[in-house]
Amino acid sequence: MLVNLSYNNPKLKQQINQEVGAPFNLRERWRLGGIGSQKLTISFSSIEIHNLLVLDHDTNSCSIEIRPNGIIVRFRSLLETYGLIIPYYKLNIYKGKAEEYSIYRDNYCMKVIANKRSIHAFFKKITAQKLNNMPPSVDEL
For residues 19 and 69, is the Cβ–Cβ distance under 8 A? Predict the structure, then answer.
């Protein structure tokens, strides 16, 4: 779900909290070692996101916030903040090149450049959170 997060909209906030959960409290943020990424450079995006990013001439960048049931990928275009809301059950992360991660949700796609160790560690943290939130498999029952 691609939404405009620039304005305070209680209905939208409730819908986001239903999809990916409410933000972590301070204790859980400390336990996880932080829930936000640093600034990530976008190298490729799907057409819907690309149409928003080409409206201004700034560098295409985003940040990721970890929530209990998913992630929010935030980026800016023309003084507006947009968010790609991705619950863990719809999240697919691929590491194609050595320094590039692909983030997918349904028909939305973003590729970000990971040129620092801290970025690689952050994506490991996301995959660990995704594994912790997966429902039990048939074999485990």
Answer: yes
* Domain assignments of the chain as residue spans, ordered by start: 2-132
Alpha carbon 132 to chain centroid, angstroms: 17
125-134: b (≥16 Cβ within 10 Å) or e? bbeebbeeee
Q: Report yes or no: 125 and 137 within 8 Å, Cβ to Cβ.
A: no
Q: What is the pLDDT of residue 91?
A: 93
pLDDT per residue over 65-110, tens digit each? 999 999 999 999 988 999 999 999 999 999 988 899 999 999 999 9
pTM of full prediction above 0.85: yes
The CATH code belonging to domain 2-132 is 2.30.29.30
Helix, strand or coil for residue 139? coil
Strand order in the sheet with 108-113: 2-4, 80-87, 70-77, 61-67, 40-45, 108-113, 100-105, 92-95
